[in-house]
Amino acid sequence: MNLTLLASLCAGIAATCTALIFIEFLTAFSVRYRERFIQEASVEMDDVLLNMPLSKILDISFALAALCAAVAVMAVAFFVANMTLTKGLIAALLAGGAAFPCPRLLLRHLRKQRLAKFNEQLEDALLSISGSLKAGFSINQALEVVANENRKPLSSEFSLLMHEIHLGVSLDEALDKMVSRLNCQDFELVAIAIVTARQTGGELTSILERLASVIRERVRITGRVKALTAQGRMQAVIIGLMPWALFCGMMYIASDMMMNFFSTLPGILCIVLVILLDLTGFLVIRKITTIDI
């Protein structure tokens, strides 16, 4: 009896220590992931100029994942006659895992769209700066003219540039910060041209006009490439969604047969393999149809 009590006590201590270590690991992992998530999201939110607490993005991600998981469980319970905990858990994990990165993906999409619009407006801005310099304005005054134009996101970025200059930051340093903030190759060329012309005394107006023509040609070629690769990008979306559409159709037509994928280990492994292959195929097609100019 004493040996049994001692064994039970030792087993309880071991289980408690294991649980504490596991909880400590999960706590440390969650803290690190939250810090990295907020740090990456802060950069994306700064790029799209969203005034929102950074922790809200993580909260929205968790809330959206929980909502999609609940909807998936209810859908499985509606379509499946013999609902089990394993089936509901698998459906919740798949739906929640797919929905969790959606807010971050939306931020990245907005960032990409904003950068594309900035590139389209940059040509007119360079011509405006060149015209202002020909009229006798200084480079700061020429940049102020562009900042005062109501053409977002171009005017917003140049307004931030002028605010830094008014606060005492040198033009070279302010341009450096703007290049780092935008991560735009075209504007990086513009910043290098302005800094070099100020240091060497070159003719900045002709340089800006040549850069405007280069950017105009690059935008034209980029638009043509997008038009030529539109079919391939659409194929990537269709191929990525086709297995899921077929899965939903089969769940409605023959739910008993499809439930074998959730109730057996080979079936679960097949679902995981399909997800990996589908995602790989989608990314490979997108990589092929993405051409840098």
Q: Brief description of this entry?
A:
The chain has 293 residues and is mainly α. The protein is built from 13 helices and no strands.
Plain-language structure description:
The protein has 293 residues and is mainly α. It has four domains: 1-40; 54-100, no CATH class; 113-223, Receptor-associated Protein (Up-down Bundle); 229-293, no CATH class. The chain has 13 helices and no strands. It has helices at 2-48, 54-79, 85-99, 102-134, 139-148, 154-166, 171-182, 185-200, 204-228, 230-253, 255-258, 260-263, 265-289.
Average predicted confidence as pLDDT: 77
- The structural class is mainly alpha
Query: What is the radius of gyration computed over CA atoms, rounded to a whole number of angstroms?
Result: 28 Å
Q: What oligomeric arrangement do these chains adopt? A: single chain
- CATH names the topology of the largest domain as Receptor-associated Protein
Largest sheet: none
- What is the count of distinct domains? 4
Helix-strand pattern: HHHHHHHHHHHHH
- The amount of beta strand, in percent, is under 5%
Distance between the termini: 79 Å
